[in-house]
Please model this.
Amino acid sequence: DTPRHQGMAKNTNMRWRLPLVCLLWELAMIVLFGVFVRFGAEADAHWEEEKQEMNLTSDIENDFYFRYPSFQDVHVMIFVGFGFLMTFLKRYGFGAVGFNFLLAAFGIQWALLMQGWFHSFKDGKILIGVENLINADFCVGSVCIAFGAILGKTSPIQLLVMTLFQVTLFSVNEYILLNLLHVKDAGGSMTIHTFGAYFGLTVTRILYRPNLEQSKDKQGSVYHSDLFAMIGTLYLWMYWPSFNSAISDHGDAQHRSAINTYCSLAACVLTTMAFSSMLQKKGKLDMVHIQNATLAGGVAVGTSAEMMLTPYGSLIVGSISGIVSTVGYVYFTPFLESRLHIQDTCGIHNLHAMPGLIGGIVGAITAAAATEDVYGKEGFIKAFDFTGVYQTRTPSIQGGFQAAGIVVSLLMAFVGGAIVGGILKLPIWGDAAAENCFEDGIYWEV
Amino acid sequence: DTPRHQGMAKNTNMRWRLPLVCLLWELAMIVLFGVFVRFGAEADAHWEEEKQEMNLTSDIENDFYFRYPSFQDVHVMIFVGFGFLMTFLKRYGFGAVGFNFLLAAFGIQWALLMQGWFHSFKDGKILIGVENLINADFCVGSVCIAFGAILGKTSPIQLLVMTLFQVTLFSVNEYILLNLLHVKDAGGSMTIHTFGAYFGLTVTRILYRPNLEQSKDKQGSVYHSDLFAMIGTLYLWMYWPSFNSAISDHGDAQHRSAINTYCSLAACVLTTMAFSSMLQKKGKLDMVHIQNATLAGGVAVGTSAEMMLTPYGSLIVGSISGIVSTVGYVYFTPFLESRLHIQDTCGIHNLHAMPGLIGGIVGAITAAAATEDVYGKEGFIKAFDFTGVYQTRTPSIQGGFQAAGIVVSLLMAFVGGAIVGGILKLPIWGDAAAENCFEDGIYWEV
Amino acid sequence: DTPRHQGMAKNTNMRWRLPLVCLLWELAMIVLFGVFVRFGAEADAHWEEEKQEMNLTSDIENDFYFRYPSFQDVHVMIFVGFGFLMTFLKRYGFGAVGFNFLLAAFGIQWALLMQGWFHSFKDGKILIGVENLINADFCVGSVCIAFGAILGKTSPIQLLVMTLFQVTLFSVNEYILLNLLHVKDAGGSMTIHTFGAYFGLTVTRILYRPNLEQSKDKQGSVYHSDLFAMIGTLYLWMYWPSFNSAISDHGDAQHRSAINTYCSLAACVLTTMAFSSMLQKKGKLDMVHIQNATLAGGVAVGTSAEMMLTPYGSLIVGSISGIVSTVGYVYFTPFLESRLHIQDTCGIHNLHAMPGLIGGIVGAITAAAATEDVYGKEGFIKAFDFTGVYQTRTPSIQGGFQAAGIVVSLLMAFVGGAIVGGILKLPIWGDAAAENCFEDGIYWEV
Model:
């Protein structure tokens, strides 16, 4: 079994704490789902009648067929993508993929409720369909990101507590951005990446462990663990066009989002490889960069992919984000740890925080630069939903609100992260001592 | 090479037996396909004319677009899902993924014929389309399940023989349930899981090896093999909503099946983690449970997912099945082995048999509780196909038939499994001695 | 670090060369995309107006919904399929999956341009949509194939140079076949496999390394690397029906392509297993065959899958290709190396070259055998696009042109491969000495 220094011994036995939290919370989910959640019109057996009322001639008009393939791709990103991306640590593969599985499985239930109350609430019921499933996965994506910062240093109970709070804050922030500021963010540069990453970085700052070098030998990868991590990388990379297009408007918007993301990601690989080689003395490539910075291109077009960013615009954004992210791994991560006491296990600052900010800014600029000429008269209104009270909003005002969305997301992340970090610091959650971090043997039968 | 005890030596050389079986059977497939199998209307080049006759205005009405994404997800579950789930054994990864590949590739061909004769036969020809491909994959799924019970203890020839018979029996059982009893079972709780699992358990009972402890050291996992197995787990878990919705009616039924399954699986993860920790002295999690019991929620809504089970109903079913399955791994599996001489390598009793029974029962109850109020007048008739001779069937009678479906599946599994087990016991199939079980070196160049 | 014989020392330091190539080429992409690439009508925000002009009543008519699920499957095949298939080498997993990632990410950008100029050029702009993304992935597939021949023996810079030229030649060859010869080749037996494989074999012949036995100990696999490779195999195998149907005509053609490919691949597994066992002295199976020859069935129906090949025809083609491919691994590969000095790391001659030729021939025969009776009057014209100047083309003439397509592809591969091989032989690209081949330590921080 795992040796512990006598003075540092912490009680990591989860025998009653973890089951209690899991079972009580699942019971709460059942009760809340029982009270609130019902099938939306397109998933309800009354759909036959609905179709007639809406004059739909074919079942293919059901939203299921517009979004289900993308939903499954997003689902793979959350569970295999994030899960395996984090298996790079030599002795924390079970924790990476297993705890990610646990927190995401809880998170999607809680997100269905939280987002449902804000967005799908009608006559006292939350009505769900495939778009809700995608949004729940998205919301949990922000928790998976934050998990990356504290990977290996927290107990599963802490992760569940963080998920509970982060999903709640995510939903509030999302409501402010999408409903109050009327901001576009289909791929979540702001709501998912900026918020999720800065939230996680704040939490890990609060949970700063001064003695973490005691487990330094376990913080690296081995040959095979790097290959497992590449499974995660590639699934995230390949399916990111689905991520950014999953909840875009039917038709051209979904189509365009996928193309922009495809282009941005392709460019990002080239600049990542270039800088990875350039910044190493012997010109060798570093798997850490390939596993992570190649994905920055997906993050950085998260807001603008459904806009008329254009393929060459996407190449530019992808190129820049790959450079920023790789440089971040080489220079910023050590700086953050040594100077700011931010211990960021997976380097989410480079993969999600900075590219997320780029994404928000690119989105604001792209929105501000929109013209009726480029979008067409109807396309312009549809793309930015300039109807009802927003009928008079101009592109430059929209750009301003987009920028405000970044600021709100940052504030929510810092304040929320600080509070949740404080809660997670309580000595009751069963986290391990510094010398036992990054070690599956603590929480798993190995 | 692998050492063998002199007295126990068995001839495991497959040099002529395996090629002979593979080639003759493939030849038989070619002949039978030549005589019987043709493209269905939607895959035939006459579709242009068909469209006009059916007054279809768009190619998108082709069933291909309703089902192909789900088909591919199911395909991944059968080949990567089941294949990698079984790679957990430290020295049987080639056999797990390779033999699963072999039996499934043969099985889908034979299933296209067997199911075709029962369900797609017209004017002397079997007319196939994407739904047939899904059904063939489903049928083979039941063989993959049974393979889990005998994993590591049988030769590839035995597996092919078992596949031949099990696909046949599956198709007969399926015909009795779907056509004679007019039972609903889109996700196959009864036809796939209950039948497949009890069939496999009966076979492994007949093939009982009293000296299996001689290969005990190889029956466990190593760190990396557990991560490979998690690839299988996650793909099964993520794509199970596609599995349960793949052959449901177009529109709301497919949509609803996916949502119910998503909910059930999410809840199942929480209760599995809870009980895995609770039942271990130090509260540590066991990868065996995480790899398997987390999937029980998908099995347990296999019959009812397309009904109006509701999201909270799904959470309840998923929660219960996770508990039952985990408890099964801790208490039932050792009991089955020591008392009943049922050696169940992968614990399919916990993952498929018990959750399959739960699924059948939940399906019967959900059907019996159906009302026109909940389904809508048209939805009610459509959901249970209460047309033609079944026009007068009431929900409670339907519930009774559903229950009868469970009993028939069990009988078919026990009787069929006993007969096929007897055939597989013949000393001509090249299986290994007890001390050489769970060892790739017997059948593979390593 | 890696030891090197003094006399053989080569400069493999890529510190300035690789970054320079990556950054300059990415810059070129940005400029060319800026000048030429725009969204096609279905991805442009003007789609709302387009819909009205084309009298489309639903967004579901957008090509995105017909092709996006298949696109994602193809995408997985290129990046995970080919990438992981090549991880079988014990010490070259990073290079396999990482360099494949690099060359494909560059290749798809260049392919969008090259193929765009030939096929999607309108009023000075290349208009792209989801079909262009699929075609770019297809084009890069041929580079991944060629990479298989030189795996472990080339620097990433050489791979990028090869990609630049091969994508160019691919596009020219594709234009000759599809536009000038009016040949059908939706799954690319000729354009992707025959061309890609013979191109790669010619390149590796030119780059012949007489002292390669110095790194012989690293040319094999280890237990775990073979399992990683099986991930690649299975994803290629499962998604091949999507590959062959991805750009077929909407409706029956896509549907039929998927069915034919599914059948061919299933049969191929059986004959591969048979011959793998038969050709080994003790009847044991060889993972090399299972990983590769099982896929030959997908290659061999690449041209004919969208035609009325029929399911039993597919079984025959799949059966034959599995045999040819397995026999190739046992007898041809050693012969090619010792006699013809063709060092083919992954055996692409067996997996792509020979099955590709079979595919071209089967396509020619199937086209020549087409009748209005089998296809229906309209289906016949639609299947072979016998409109406009091709209105009078008969099936037998079409068969002749199909055969000509094989010859053109071969010529282009041999001539192009020889030229590109010559360029790659220049001593400026940073390739490793023979004793350092198949070793990640040369180009990666390990």
Notes: The CA atoms of residues 13 and 214 of chain B lie 21 Å apart. The longest helix of chain B spans residues 395-425. Confidence is low (pLDDT under 50) at residues 1-7 of chain B. Chain B touches chain C through 68 residues (CB under 8 Å).
